[in-house]
Amino acid sequence: MRIDRYLGVTGCCTRTEAKKIIRAGGVTVNGVTVKSSDTKLDPDTDKVVFCGSPVTYRKYTYILMNKPEGVVSATEDGKDRTVIDLLPADMRKTDLFPCGRLDKNTLGLMLITDNGELAHRLLAPKSHVSKVYRYKSKFPMSEDDAKRFENGLTLEDGYETKPAKIKLDDDGMGGEIVLVEGKYHQIKRMLEALDNKITYLERISFGPLMLDTELKRGEWRYLTEEEIKELEAHK
């Protein structure tokens, strides 16, 4: 593996940044300063130090993004910008993809990875991975509406949703929703089944991951080692 790619997949920096840091003498392999970004190494055995800190190699890349409005959850789209388009150019050419989907105008936590096996497990219906959303509605919701929501609703196409959780704000105009499934436009359609309408929707957690409030809309970061461990261990 090339050293610039290695630094990219381990979350040290982008491959473009790696080239600059390597030229400045900031990377060593087995104690020897690397002089070129196309230097080859064995990720399983060679010891890499990046700007004075040892690097731990991981086979997969995990990215946490704060998805903005108007961006689609896809690897490519002929019309709109995608979450992959928000990454640096050299990362768009990799095998990264969004784990799951947020509607175009839904904001918040998006996991991007190249670990297909993990994504399949997290998204499998039998996994029941919880997803928490902040929402606002056009009309106030009553306690009776909340009970109907929590017991499961029949959507316009006849699909019966699984029981979900909802916590109403004091004015009934918003709150938090917890789902363990992810049907197309599900929350929007569930509120429509209650003769209401979603006006704002933001995902704030996905399984063990929490939205990083320090990330502005459209910003991203690599998962921490602790977040990766929790994600990979999540059942």
Topology, element by element:
Blueprint: H1 3-9, H2 15-23, E1 27-29, E2 32-33, E3 48-50, E4 53-54, E5 62-67, E6 97-98, E7 107-113, H3 116-123, E8 131-137, H4 143-151, E9 165-168, E10 174-179, H5 186-192, E11 198-206, E12 209-210, E13 220-222, H6 225-233
Helix pairs in contact: 1-2
Question: Keyphrases for this structure?
Answer:
alpha+beta, nine-stranded mixed β-sheet, four-stranded antiparallel β-sheet, 6 helices, 21% helix, elongated
User: Which consecutive residue ranges, at least 5 long each, have pLDDT under 50?
Assistant: none
Estimated radius of gyration:
21 Å
| Spatial gap, N to C terminus | 32 Å
Amount of helix: 10-25%
- SS element count, helices: 6
State the gist of this model.
The chain is of the alpha+beta class and about 240 residues long. The protein has helices at about 5-10, 15-25, 115-125, 145-150, 185-190, 225-235; strands spanning about 25-30, 30-35, 50, 55, 60-65, 95-100, 105-115, 130-135, 165-170, 175-180, 200-205, 210, 220. The strands form two sheets. Strands 5, 6, 7, 8, 9, 10, 11, 12 and 13 form a nine-stranded mixed beta sheet that branches. It has a four-stranded antiparallel beta sheet with strand order 2-1-3-4, with no helix packed on it.
